[in-house]
Amino acid sequence: MGRIALGVEYDGTDFAGWQIQQNQRTVQGCLTEAISLVANQSVKTVAAGRTDSGVHALQQVIHFDADAVRDERNWILGLNTNLPADINVTWAKAVDDTFSARFSATKRAYRYIILNRVSRSAVHVDRVWWYFQKLDVALMQAAADCLVGDHDFSAFRAKECQAKSPFKTMESITVSQQGDCIAIDVIGQSFLHHMVRNIVGVLVVIGEGKRSVSWVQEVLESRNRAHGGITSPPEGLYFVNVDYPEVYALPTVSTFPVVW
Asked: What is the SS3 assignment for 205?
């Protein structure tokens, strides 16, 4: 059997997340169905990372094994013909069986977008978190800097998280602003369930001035989720990119979400 890797983008608004669930519309379910149809056999799909209900992806990477022989262009065209409008395959590439979309990944990147203005958006309602209280980006960045490095992120993990260890390494967290939009870019090898959304929830409280910058350190050191802020809503979160060793020579696509 041959192994194929795919680059996939999707609007998570109308999905119950990535993972197949009984009687639920999921990204994995739609993709697996389309791939099985094009490959003319049942397949199993493995993703770089699971996304929750409402979370979007600009460069999700998956792999599957199949006997079918198709060139890369035909995989793309065949799959997109059989996929709903809110899922799209951006590239396809044959890889060897040492490649795993999940375990070969060396780095994952997420972006969270906040619309920070008095009025809500009619256009971006399902693609940003509308937060009308004024936020201070400098304070949010100062707090984010405290989370970079190796830490026990127990205070930022969901109760349902199945990860064996709460220890993760954050390579960088960058808070930037253009006009009314604030972007929080988080890069690391792997993440806990709801980790990015919980980090954003703490940064927003600090940015609004309700807590000091030092509060983020207190939350981190508490190792207790109850000490943290709110979990930010899913619609502002994007799975932006995944890095792999150069030996696999996977394609890249433009992944910057245009909201301004």
From this structure: helix
Q: Which of 52, 65, 145, 152 is catalytic?
A: 52
14 catalytic? Reply is no
Task: Sort 25 into a burial class: Cβ within 10 Å, 0-12 / 13-18 / 19+.
Answer: middle
Distance CA 233, CA 200 (A): 10
The CATH topology of domain 107-239 is Alpha-Beta Plaits (3.30.70)
* Per-residue tens of pLDDT for the chain, all 260 residues: 899 999 999 999 999 999 999 999 999 999 999 999 999 999 999 999 999 999 999 999 999 999 999 999 999 999 999 999 999 999 999 999 999 999 999 999 999 999 999 999 999 999 999 999 999 999 999 999 999 999 999 999 988 888 889 999 999 999 999 999 999 999 999 999 999 999 999 999 999 999 999 999 999 999 999 898 899 999 999 999 999 999 999 998 766 665 44
The domain 2-104: what is its CATH number? Answer: 3.30.70.580
Same CATH fold assignment for domains 2-104 and 107-239: yes
